[in-house]
Amino acid sequence: MIQEHVTITNESGLHARPATLFTQLAAKFQSKITLANGAKQADAKSILTVLTLGATKGTELVVTVDGADEAEAMAAVKEFLTTHKD
């Protein structure tokens, strides 16, 4: 299991369209990927739970990845959260 703090630096945060792309990215990995914003937690493969985080630019998320491809999954998630542009 890997856990890292990642600050969303892309302009759009995780509103509807980027959240959809994010969950599609997460679904490509076998590992379980969880995002946390304070007390709120979300399964990264579920669009509804990701949207409930209310993650905008500047939000620091705790990303937890657990599974066989966790290193690759963490790298992809971090890249998306910090570089994705709408």
Automatic annotation (TrEMBL):
This is Phosphocarrier protein HPr. Its main location: cytoplasm. It comes from Veillonella magna. Residues 1-86 form the HPr domain. It is found in: Cytoplasm. The keyword Protein transport does not apply. General (non sugar-specific) component of the phosphoenolpyruvate-dependent sugar phosphotransferase system (sugar PTS). This major carbohydrate active-transport system catalyzes the phosphorylation of incoming sugar substrates concomitantly with their translocation across the cell membrane. The phosphoryl group from phosphoenolpyruvate (PEP) is transferred to the phosphoryl carrier protein HPr by enzyme I. Phospho-HPr then transfers it to the PTS EIIA domain. The keyword Cytoplasm applies. Keywords: Cytoplasm, Phosphotransferase system. Gene3D superfamilies: HPr-like (3.30.1340.10). NCBIfam families: PTS_HPr_family.
